[in-house]
Every structure is written in structure tokens, then in C-alpha cells.
Design brief:
The protein has 297 residues and is α/β, with parallel strands linked by helices. The protein has one domain: TIM Barrel (Alpha-Beta Barrel), CATH 3.20.20. It has 14 helices and 11 strands. Bound molecules: zinc ion.
């Protein structure tokens, strides 16, 4: 069988849903590619993320390097602060329902993306579960089914969030970064829900580092693929679905031309998985700590 490139698309914001989703569906259809979309359904509080500038080292530099105001638009940068936070699930119902209709896999990303990313570490297990439940319920209301997969906003996972995955009996979660599918151990506790990690640097991490430009992003991404291993590309409705559609299209077209199969995450093998630590670490090009596959456990 041809080697496979799995496509994971995170949708974080109102604009990423309203504009990014239709664009991505067209683009994927053009290449007959099936992807997994992880959607955010509650308030778009992106404006609050601006406050991270003051709290997190490296955030301002990254905002400028990746042109975040250009990527998200000024309105998005004010949601939840100067402008009220739009409820994504309610206002973008038509766009969201097109995702499963087009045959793509659909998973839950977040209720409040910014809230999860900023507060998971300080929440009690009960608070984390309540927030998770808001997204879970909204997903059921909108799509008439429960999610079979979840991806942590901002790759922010804790033992609390992993134990909720287990309670929900998910088929898998895609919370972190790594090299292969595995069963996670975190904080000394072994969990049952498989992790299918993102293996490649995201566009916002790669641009401007190690000579990566918009022009060579696709070539660099394709050069990093490993035929014998798990390959997961992580895109965003706000980036690949808006200002960076050409870069994403170049990845898809280049992969197909080189004989790769494009597939959703549910097609990644999850049999006889080894157990690895899931750690929190800094990674190049991203501010803050993200969940990363560690040593064998
Ligand atoms: Zn996200």
C-alpha cells in the first residue's frame, strides 16, 4: 500500500469556521482527500489570547513573525474583550454540518478554545470535566452523535483531561506531538485512550525558522515525511483555510504527485500500541508548554 499522510485540521475560531471550513472543504474535495476536523463550538474568545502577550515569553515575537493580525483579522483579535465572543456552534451551524456531509471525520476540539488553553492547568478535575462536557453536549446537539475523537486545544493535556477521554471511551485522542500512535502514561498514571500525535511542524511553527518561507513550506514538509512511519500534518481553519490555502494545496498536490495517500486520522493503525510517556515541553516555534510523546513507559 502507498505510504499515508494523515490530515488533522483544527478549527479554533468563528472566522476559521465561517470562512476557513468552506474553503478547506473545497480544497480537500479538489484533491479527493479525506481529513479529520476538530471543531470548537462555544464562544470565540480569541481577543483574550492577546493578554498572553503580557504573560508568556515569546508570544509577541511569534505574533509578529506569523502575522497573527493578518491571519485572524482584527475583529477576531478583539472577540471576548472589546467585542462580544460569538458562539461558534450556533452561528456557523451550516458550515459545520457540511464537514460530515462531505465524508470527513469530525471530532471535538473545544468548547472555549482560549479558556481551555489558558486555564486547564489551574482547573480542578471537576472544572475540566464540566468544560469538556459543554463541548460534548454542544457536539451532540449539533450533529446528533457523540464525538469518537478529541484533540486538545493548543496541545494542552493533563492527567485530568486524559482520564476524561477514558471515561468517554473515545476511539482515540490527538492531544500532542510525537512520532507514532501510542497509549499514554502521564503523571505516573496509565491511560487507555490511544494517542495519534501530530508528527510534522505546523505552518505557524515552521514559517520564519530554519529558512522556511511560504514558497518552500510544502517542499520542506514533504521532505520531512517518513514512508515507514506515522505522518500527521496539522492544519488550522484560520491559516490553511484562509490566508495560506496555496501553501496547503501545494502540500496536498505534492504528496499525491509523490505517490502518497491522503487520509483522515481514523485510518491510522491503532493495534498493539506500545506505551509512552506524555510529557509537557516547549517545542521550537511555539510559546508555552505542549503535550509531547516522551520515552517508552
Ligand atoms: Zn486549536
Amino acid at each position: 500500500m502507498n505510504p499515508t499522510l494523515h490530515l488533522k485540521i483544527d478549527i479554533d475560531t468563528y472566522v476559521g469556521t465561517q470562512e476557513g471550513v468552506p474553503n478547506l472543504l473545497r480544497l480537500l474535495d479538489r484533491h479527493q482527500a479525506r481529513a479529520t476536523f476538530f471543531v470548537s463550538l462555544g464562544p470565540d474568545n480569541s481577543g483574550k489570547a492577546i493578554w498572553r502577550i503580557f504573560r508568556r515569553r515569546g508570544f509577541l515575537a511569534k505574533m509578529l513573525r506569523t502575522n497573527a493580525p493578518g491571519m485572524y483579522g482584527m475583529k477576531t483579535m478583539m472577540y471576548g474583550t472589546l467585542l462580544p465572543a460569538p458562539l461558534i456552534g450556533r452561528t456557523c451551524l451550516a458550515e459545520l454540518q457540511q464537514i460530515p456531509k462531505a465524508g470527513h471525520e469530525l471530532g471535538l476540539h473545544a468548547w472555549d478554545h482560549v479558556g481551555w488553553h489558558d486555564h486547564l492547568d489551574e482547573w480542578s478535575e471537576g472544572e475540566a470535566a464540566a468544560e469538556y462536557e459543554r463541548g460534548w453536549k454542544a457536539f451532540g446537539d449539533l450533529f446528533g452523535a457523540t464525538p469518537s475523537c478529541v484533540a486538545a486545544p493548543g496541545w494542552t493535556a493533563t492527567p485530568a483531561s486524559l482520564s476524561i477521554h477514558d471515561a468517554k471511551r473515545l476511539a482515540y485522542a490527538s492531544d500532542g506531538r510525537g512520532e507514532r500512535a501510542f497509549l499514554p502514561t502521564m503523571g505516573g498514571k496509565a491511560f487507555a485512550t490511544p494517542q495519534v500525535p501530530t508528527t510534522l511542524p505546523t505552518l505557524d511553527e515552521a514559517l520564519g525558522r530554519d529558512g522556511v518561507t511560504r514558497e518552500n513550506f510544502a517542499a520542506r514538509t514533504l521532505a520531512a515525511l517518513k514512508p515507514e512511519a506515522l505522518n500527521v500534518f496539522g492544519g488550522h481553519g484560520e491559516a490553511e483555510g484562509r490566508g495560506y490555502q496555496a501553501e496547503f494545496e501545494a502540500v496536498l498536490a505534492g504528496a499525491l504527485a509523490a505517490g502518497w495517500r491522503l487520509a483522515a486520522l481514523d485510518e491510522a493503525s491503532r493495534t498493539a500500541l506500545p506505551r509512552f510517556e506524555l510529557l509537557r515541553r516547549e517545542i521550537p516555534g511555539r510559546a508555552g508548554l505542549v503535550a509531547v510523546q516522551g520515552p517508552a513507559a
